[in-house]
Each structure stands twice: as C-alpha cells, then as structure tokens.
Automatic annotation (TrEMBL), chain A:
Residue spans crossing the bilayer: 9-30, 56-88, 100-123, 129-149, 227-252
Top-level taxon of origin: Bacteria
Origin species: Paenibacillus glycanilyticus
Family per similarity comment: Belongs to the binding-protein-dependent transport system permease family. CysTW subfamily.
Membrane disposition: Multi-pass membrane protein
Presence of the UniProt keyword Transmembrane helix in the record: yes
Subcellular location: Cell membrane
InterPro entries xref list: Bact_Polyamine_Transport (IPR051789), MetI-like (IPR000515), MetI-like_sf (IPR035906)
The protein, known as: Spermidine/putrescine ABC transporter permease
Cross-referenced Gene3D superfamilies: MetI-like
Domain named ABC transmembrane type-1: residues: 60-249
Claim: Transport is one of the keywords in the record: yes
Keywords: Cell membrane, Membrane, Transmembrane, Transmembrane helix, Transport
From TrEMBL, chain B:
Pfam families associated with the record: BPD_transp_1
UniProt KW keywords: Cell membrane, Membrane, Transmembrane, Transmembrane helix, Transport
Residues in ABC transmembrane type-1 domain copies: 57-259
Stretches that traverse the bilayer: 12-33, 61-83, 90-114, 134-158, 201-218, 238-258
Membrane topology summary: Multi-pass membrane protein
UniProt-recorded name of the protein: Spermidine/putrescine ABC transporter permease
Family annotation (PROSITE patterns): ABC_TM1
Subcellular location: Cell membrane
Similarity comment: family membership: Belongs to the binding-protein-dependent transport system permease family. CysTW subfamily.
Record InterPro entries: MetI-like, MetI-like_sf
UniProt xrefs under Gene3D superfamilies: MetI-like (1.10.3720.10)
C-alpha cells in the first residue's frame, strides 16, 4: 500500500488540534496587551508577576512537597503491597487483592474526593496539608503496586532460595536481592505517583480546607474569575516542567525495557 | 519462615485497603441514608427518583455517550493511521504528551480560544460567518471533553491494532473482500477489546466530570459529578451527594461488567485519572 496524502492530513489535523490550545496559551503569555487576544507586543511582565507573587510561590512549593512526600511514602506501601500480593499463592485471594487494588485506579475522582472528605471528617483530621497528603498517598499506592508487581513476577524464585541457602536473613533478602531487582519498577511507580499527584485536581479540591491550596486548585479558582495572563506564564513554566518529567519517565521506561529484555535473554541461556 | 514474611507484608497493605478502599465506600453508602438534619431516612433515594434528578442522570448519561462516541469516531482512524506511520512509537508519544499536561491548563486555554475575541471567533469573522457565542454552550463542553479524552481512546485501540496479525487482513483481501468489508468483518472485531477498554476509559470519567462543566459549560451542563460536588461543597447536603455517588458507583460497576476488562494491568494504568 502506498502512503496516501489524505490519511497523513488527518493525522496532522489531529495533532494540530491537540497542540493548538497549549501553544495558544504559551504564545499569549508574552502578550503585553493583557488579554488572550490582540497580540500587542513582547513582554516578560507576566513571568515577573509570577515570580513576584509570594502566595503563588508558596503554593507551588506546597504542591511539590505534597507530590514528593506522597510518592515517597506510597512507594514504601506499594512495595509492601506488591510483595504481599506476590506471596499470596492461592488464586482466589490473590485476585481479590488485585481487584481491591484497582478500585481506586478506576473510580472517578469525584467519588474518591467525596468519600475521603467523609472519612477525614469522621476520623477528625483537619482539612489541610495532612488530609491532602494522606489522600495523595492513598491514590498513589495502587499505581506503585501495579508498576512493581510485573517486576516481581519476572524475578526467578531461585534467587531468593540461593540467598537463603547462603545464610541471608529475611531483611537481607529484601534489601540485597529483591529491592535491587525490582528497582526499575520502583522508579517507574515513583514517577507515575509523582505525575498523578502533581496533576490531581478533583480529589485535592474536595479534601483541601481553607488555608491550604495546591497549584491545580489555585489555577481553578483564578480561572473562574476570568483570564489573567500570569496564569498563562505559569502554564508555560508548568508545560516545560511536564516535558522534562515525561522525558525522564521515557528514559526510565527505556532502561526498564532493556533490563527486562536482558533478564529474559539471560533466563533463556 | 515464608509464612511469617508473607504476613508481615500484608499488614501495611491490608491496613491501606481497609482504611482507604473499603471504609470510604462503606461511608458513602452509610451517609446516603441521612438527611440534612442527621435523621436516618430513605428520603434521599426517594428524591433521586423524582423527575428532576432522573432527568439530570439521563442527560449526564447522554452527554457521556456523546463524548464517548465522538472520541471513538476521531480516535479510531487516528489510531489506525498511527500504526501505519514510520516512527509509530514517537508519534504515539506525541499523541500522549498533551494528556500529561495539567487538565486545568487545557480547559483554561479553551477559555481564551473560544472567547468572544478568541482565535476561533477571529477565524469565523474572517470567513464571514461572524462572531458566535461558543463558550458556555453544549458544543464547547463536548468539544473540550472530547479533546481531553482522545488520547485515552487512541492508546488502547492503537495497542489492539498492533497486536492484530496483519496477515489476517491480507488473507481477507486475497479472498476478495473489499477494504470496507475487511475492516467491518476482520479488523474491527479483532480490535473490539481495545475499543471496549477505550470506551470504559472515557465513559466513566465523562459521567463524573465537574471542573469542565463549570469552566467551559458555565453551569449549563449538570453531570453526576457536578451534582455530587455541588451537594458536598456548596449546599453541604452530604446525604444527597452520597446518594448520587452510590448511583455513580453502581453505574461504574455496570459499565465495567459490560465492557468486561479481562485484560488488566499496565494498559489500564495508562488510563489516567480525569474529572
């Protein structure tokens, strides 16, 4: 089949539509006109405004602290979860655990947010930093489990047996054998959790109290008041950061695939 | 020895499941039996079956259906053409990339694009149609939603197209099938699983959208998600909000059963959360 012109045109149109809004935002972040129309002249004014806005910078800091802390903690729980599921031998309880694990991945954010709001109110946790952190940990754990589990299944059980025969304790088996082997999965899970946390709006919107805010929630409340080009400037910065994250994730994935391919090749030998 | 280690790992994980998976669902169901004053009652369920709420539920399903249908219409050809390109992994990454960008920012961009003096109206004026009210209409709501969901539809379809054995299509063509027949009888049935998981990944979040309804549709469209948010955060009627949430959970389970997700795992993981 010869590559026709029309199909390519279709793909190009899809790409243009997918990227147009993003570049539209970035383009107008340099507009001195003060609105997302009539490009008047080039200016850095909106970027200066972003960097002069202390409140906004604190919110950015909050967002990153929440993202890093929640991913780090959820990685620990996620590894434990993956090991727990891995060690359950019988089929039925294993499938039950896997289904329970996936509940938070498939349920809509509104449900997660609303139910966590009830939960925190009943337990008596004040809405704010702690409640946001806890909910981000909660919805990141299953993601880490899903990323780590295939790595565990790849691992040959003889490795553990060998370590035990050579006299390793349970702790040594975990830290010297299992963790190094599943490290790519752990990194991928950490990255995924990080992006989920940075991206999350709906869950945070429900469980954040008055004094605390993350970037998504802040952008929402500003966007509801209308257009301000400082949001555009902020978007451009976030866009650049997202691309960096994606590139990082891409390389981790590549390495991941390479090591698993190598493991498979070695297994065959 | 192994039994001990196993139990040890299960403790934190089961704690997480109990606290953040089971308890929240139980609490939502529990709260749905309380009215605003805190009396135990079934009135929330009675209220849900009044025309106001039923109409809202119906329209929410209708919008979700439209969004899913349009996404499928755009995404299937795009996924198919993607499998034919030279550097398909790179192209795929480029398609997925916008879905990594914060949802809020994309919605915000459309505020500018669709605004009275935005780019789209500029083009319309230029071709002589004149300025139109685009923002705060059903059209803009569906367009922006489809825009946001397209990558999640393309990905599973692309994967199932990649898994398909191309010699089957050649065989069909050799046996005299027209391109359309080959598509209808061979390609589409073989990629049905991808279509199903794509629909699942779009339909459930589309039911529960609430941020886009506020920003883009200007409260004209009320989805189940918007109603839940409204009841929990604005009117503080948690009982009614929980009742709607119960029905949303039921709808979700039914859809999952209908679209049957036998294939689980990493593919599902790409279905990033949106609402």
């Amino acid at each position: 089949m010869k590559p026709a012109k029309l199909p390519n045109l279709y793909l190009i149109v899809v790409f243009i539509i997918l990227y147009a809004p993003i570049f539209y935002l970035i383009f107008y972040s340099f507009n001195s006109g003060g609105a997302m129309r009539n490009f008047e002249g080039f200016t850095w004014e909106w970027y200066e405004e972003v960097f002069a806005d202390t409140r906004l910078l604190i919110i950015v800091l909050n967002t990153f602290v929440i993202a890093l802390l929640s991913s780090a903690i959820s990685v620990i729980f996620g590894i434990a979860g993956a090991l727990a599921i891995h060690y359950v031998r019988r089929r039925q309880p294993k499938n039950a655990l896997l289904s329970l694990n996936n509940v938070l991945i498939v349920s809509p954010d509104v449900i997660i947010g609303a139910s966590f709001l009830i939960l925190f109110t009943i337990i008596g946790i004040k809405l704010g930093f702690v409640s946001v952190l806890l909910s981000h940990i909660a919805f990141s754990v299953p993601i880490v489990v899903i990323m780590v589990l295939p790595k565990l299944q790849e691992m040959s059980p003889t490795l553990i047996d060998a370590a035990r025969d050579l006299g390793a304790s349970s702790w040594h088996v975990l830290t010297r054998v299992i963790i190094p082997f599943i490290k790519p999965g752990i990194f991928a899970g950490f990255f995924m959790a990080l992006t989920y946390s940075l991206d999350d709006f709906a869950v945070t919107f429900f469980v954040t109290g008055n004094g605390f805010s993350t970037l998504s929630v802040e952008i929402y409340s500003r966007a509801r008041q209308g257009i301000a080009l400082s949001i555009n400037a902020l978007s451009t910065l976030i866009f650049l950061f997202t691309i960096l994250l994606v590139i990082g994730y891409y390389f981790i994935n590549q390495r991941n695939n390479r090591t698993s391919a190598r493991a498979r090749a070695e297994g065959r030998r | 020895m192994r039994t001990n280690t196993r139990n040890f790992y299960l403790i934190p994980y089961l704690l997480w499941i109990a606290l953040f998976v089971i308890t929240p669902i139980v609490l939502v169901v529990y709260y749905s039996f309380f009215d605003v004053e805190g009396n135990v009652t079934l009135s929330n369920y009675e209220k849900f079956f009044t025309p106001v709420y039923l109409r809202m539920t119906l329209s929410s399903f209708w919008y979700a259906f439209l969004i899913t249908a349009f996404s499928l219409l755009v995404a299937y050809p795009a996924a198919y053409l993607l499998t034919r390109t030279k550097h398909k992994q790179l192209w795929l990454l480029l398609i997925i990339l916008p879905s990594w960008i914060n949802l809020l920012l994309k919605a915000y961009a459309f505020l500018g694009l669709f605004g009275t003096y935005g780019l789209v109206n500029g083009v319309l004026k230029f071709v002589g149609i004149g300025t139109q009210q685009i923002l705060f209409t059903d059209f803009s709501f569906i367009f922006v939603s489809v825009y946001i969901f397209i990558p999640f539809m393309i990905l599973p379809i692309f994967n199932s197209l990649e898994e398909m054995n191309p010699s089957l299509v050649f065989a069909a063509r050799d046996l005299g099938a027209s391109p359309w027949t080959a598509f209808r009888r061979v390609i589409f049935p073989l990629t049905l699983n991808g279509v199903k998981s794509g629909c699942q990944a779009v339909f459930i979040p589309a039911l529960s959208l609430f941020m886009i309804t506020r920003l883009i549709a200007g409260n004209r469209v009320i989805t189940l998600g918007t109603a839940i948010e409204q009841h929990f955060l604005v009117t503080q009627d948690w009982g009614m909000g929980a009742t709607i949430a119960v029905f949303l959970i039921i709808a979700m389970v039914v859809i999952m059963l209908l679209t049957g997700s036998r294939k689980r795992g990493l593919q599902n993981n790409e279905t990033r959360k949106i609402a």
